[in-house]
Amino acid sequence: MQRLLYEQRAATLADVAWLRKALTRTLTDLRLREELIFDLVLAAAEMLTNAVQHGQPQPTELFLTLDLIGSRLLLSVGDNGGAFGDFGRLWSKATRNSAFVEGEGGRGLPLLREILKNVSYTSGPPNILSGYADLLPHQPTLLILEDDEVQLETYGQLLKRDYRILSAGSLQEGLETISQRRVDLVLADVHLGDGLGTQMLSVNCSPDSEFAVPIILISGDLRAELPREVLMQGAEFFLSKPVKIEHLRETIRLALARTARRQARLAQYFARQVNGLLTPDLPEFLGPHMARFAAGTASVGGGDLILHENCGAFERVVLMDVMGHGISAKAWAIAYASTLRVMLQAGKHESAGAFLLHVAKYLWRQSGFAEILATMMVMDVYPDGEICIACAGHPAPLVLRGGQIEPVEIGGSLIGVFAPLEYPEVRLKLQPGDKIVLFTDGLEPHLQPGRLGSWFATALREAANAGLPDFITSICVAAERELGPQPQDDWTILAVQCG
Q: Looking at the structure, do residues 171 and 204 belong to the same domain, yes or no?
């Protein structure tokens, strides 16, 4: 964990404004995307303002912290006033609809639900409210446009596990949202209080749109000609109310898959020419250890890459995940691969941590990489079997030993967030039968900080004693069963076994 910001101020609205500016300045210096900066500042301002205006007794001090944990930001606010009474009950009821129906807690808690994940509250003093934000979500973003608040909330709750949800209760709000935020699919009611959902189709005519956004229209209108009308206007699908949730989920998956295939066709020639840059020439042995890797690819492909270099004194493997999905992530992965291949040649005599620092400093100075974030793992394997690992925000590697899973916690800041200073190294030696597993987070779309998903942990334990080829095959079978044949994000796994 890396502390990015800690501020303590008096509990006044003027100091809330000061803290909001301090957070904005810190996030801007990190070169994060504007959408994430806006969300985090809004969340912090809501939490701080609520403490000042509603604390009983009223606080005299406010605290604001921002920490970087892997590829996530942890935002925490605190105060020394009265505790948030019955937070658990209010949080469970904190939906977009609740702010309108009850007015209990206003928009603060529903807003936090949309912006932050894994929100927790600890009563004090100090009282601390914390939540995580992904630096760049891998989940596709859905904009749900529905003027019935109950249905709007229902759709969001049913779909939020698989998608990042943006909600709009009117046509005007929907048009404003899609003009300001990146959206992968729109789910809209046809008849809205201030217009027709078909007007959302106009966004695909904008010269600023890179690709057409698939739009699914829903209506309880029974006119037989309506489905044909909206499809002729450019809608991807039309659904009649009431909609069964499984049918809705399948329709969304199909719409996103169709869009991905259209994008893939546009990039097909390009990908054929350069895809070799991302294909590893990985030997069957790294030093004295056996090595195998496998990968799963999303419809268009994403930003995973794995490179190998024989550095003479050791063998080096670089595993990288360019954050994002689709053509953009694939293109940036190719740009990174081209850069890294040159730097691997030049950095043969550098240790894993020194090489990673060299790469991070170079990329930080290049304006073309300014808005792209990436995780990276560098693993050096020596002839005597010693392994040296350095990490930049990547999921921790796992050692499988005696039926146990042991994370190798390393640390190291994400590439592209701020000017790098140092990347620590961890050195270890495997015992006969041990395996070390490196992977990208496409295998764990819902990975929580410090926790391993149940399906992945189960798959690792069940295959732990198998030979390396069978081990990799078993993980691939489990991954396809869990993630499907066309996962939302690329995933890569590399396993090395001693003896």
A: yes
Provide the domain limits for residue 411: 279-497
DSSP class of 311: -
What is the CA angle 370-376-115, rounded to 5?
65
Quick: pLDDT tens for 10-28: 999 999 999 998 998 888 7
Neighbours of 379 (CB within 10 A): 23
Q: How far apart are CA 482 and CA 443, in angstroms?
A: 9
Report the share of the chain in percent with pLDDT over 90: 31
In the listed set 272, 302, 318, which residue is the last one of a domain according to the structure? 272
pLDDT in tens, 127-174: 999 998 877 655 788 999 998 888 888 888 888 878 888 889 899 999
Q: How far is residue 127's CA from residue 56's CA, in Å, rounded to a whole number?
A: 12
Q: How far apart are CA 165 and CA 137, in angstroms?
A: 11
Tell me the torsion sign for CA atoms 278, 273, 323, 486: negative
Average pLDDT in the 406-426 region? 83
| Amino acid code (one letter) for 239 | L
Residues 302 and 325 in one domain: yes
The rounded distance, in Å, linking the Cα atoms of 251 and 293 is 33
Two structure tokens written together for 121: 């509250």
Give 220's DSSP letter.
-
Task: Please count the CA atoms within 13 angstroms of the CA of 420 that sit on its side-chain side.
Answer: 25
Say what the pLDDT of residue 374 is.
80
Contacts with 10 (C-beta within 8 Å, 6 or more apart), sequence order: 60, 61, 62
At 6, which CATH number? 3.30.565.10
The answer to whether residues 377 and 485 belong to one domain is yes
Bridge partners of 63? 8, 78
Are the C-beta atoms of residues 11 and 81 closer than 8 Å to each other? yes
Please state the domain count of the chain. Answer: 3
d(CA 112, CA 46): 8
95 lies in the same domain as 188: no
Residue matched to tokens 């597993």? 437
Domain boundary among 228, 245, 272: 272
Q: What is the DSSP letter of 393?
A: B
pLDDT tens per residue across span 431-488 = 999 999 999 877 765 454 445 557 888 899 999 999 999 999 999 998 888 877 666 6
Choose among 112, 201, 103, 114: nearest CA to 153.
114
Q: Among 348, 394, 354, 381, which residue's Cα sits nearest to residue 493?
A: 394
